[in-house]
Amino acid sequence: MTTETTETSTVVIVGAGVAGLTLGNLLLRKGIDCVILEKRGREYVEQRQRAGVIDTRAARMFREWGLEDRVIGGVPFDPVLNFRIDGEDRPLTLTPDHHGDGRFCPQQVLVRNLIDVFVADGGDLRFDAEDVTPHDIADEASPHVRYRDATGSPRTIHCEFVAGCDGDHGVSRTAIPDGILTRYSHDYGFVWLTALAEVPPRHQTLMALHPRGFAGQFGRGPHASRFYLQCSPDSSLSEWPDERIRDELETRFGEPVAARGRIISRQLVPLRGVVHSPMRHGRLYLLGDAAHIVPPMSAKGMNLALHDAELLANAIVHHQENDRDTTLLDAYSPTCLRHVWNYQAFATWWTELIHSAGDASYRGDFHHHLARADLARLYESGTANRLLSEFMAGLN
Ligand code: RFL
Question: Which of 158, 288, 314, 337 could form a disulfide with 305 if both were Cys (CB 3.0 to 4.6 A apart)?
């Protein structure tokens, strides 16, 4: 018979993505014990390709916690958005002084570095954790998390706090009883076909606004690019063989994009905004994609996850160091949500502007002309440009 192992830790973190690993590293630096439980293997987590921009706010956060040199890779953010509008190059220079600290750093590089630092500093990170389930998370209860380890043995960890950092499809949010959370969502009405290809990027960002729809090329390190094509919501991957993707990219960019390199992976991503509120129930706190999704056009999903991680780390540290004062823990959800809604507003404006400015059929001719006016203002008005720059930098 397999006997169950029982342990204790101040915090159990479910999920080793950017939110969970950042929270773990911040807590470790303050001497607060935590265990990170990740359902996937280390190799899978370290290879998973996603976001690419660490904004100025997030980069400064890593610096303030003494982690900048050890976790941030990539290259400085280039404050020029390279647009191709109707086949013409129209670079848009963002207000440069906001972007000094931002980085173009593939998400998997950040994740790999966060894992290395956490493990090197003595952190407890357990991969291949199956059937992770939080229990007794209500305020008055004493929470614990059950799972089966890599050998299949059952384990229970008693804790003070559970941090749900397990993404949109994780188990943490579903541990919250029905009727507590409200889900707010917005479907943008199209999908992005995304293709990761062995194509060196010409610029960090290249975005085409074209009557057939948006196309984007974003650098993922020196040798790879992630391409995006706006498609109708009923598209299926089988309609998009590699050759069609390359042809469509060249049509929308109006030039050869050197997209003829090998396509490594393809995916259809529905563009949507989602917020679950509140971001806390009892001793369980939700972070990152477990609590909110923003469309990738905004490049904010990873940065919002980092923001949540810092707020919760500060709140737990404050609680442990100040006679169990819950002031910051109580403020966690409202403070995060204020920031999240601010960035949902930015993401909605920016996503609709970029897609309406190209494809007039997306929201109709009226919105197409509004979007063109908005876009022109970004080139002509310092005030409008500064506001966009502040959002891009995460400084709002
Ligand atoms: P993650 O990164 O999904 O990590 C969640 C972790 O939890 C694990 N997990 C579990 N562990 C234990 N038990 C369970 N039951 C579990 N279920 C899941 C998972 O294996 C995983 O390791 O969530 P986190 O940390 O909240 O971070 C969020 C970001 O990853 C996400 O917002 C961004 O990737 C979104 N995103 C982008 N964000 C940006 O800021 N800029 C971008 O340019 C950008 N591009 C993108 C993106 C997301 C994309 N996908 C996933 C659709 C491009 C793409 C294609």
Answer: 288
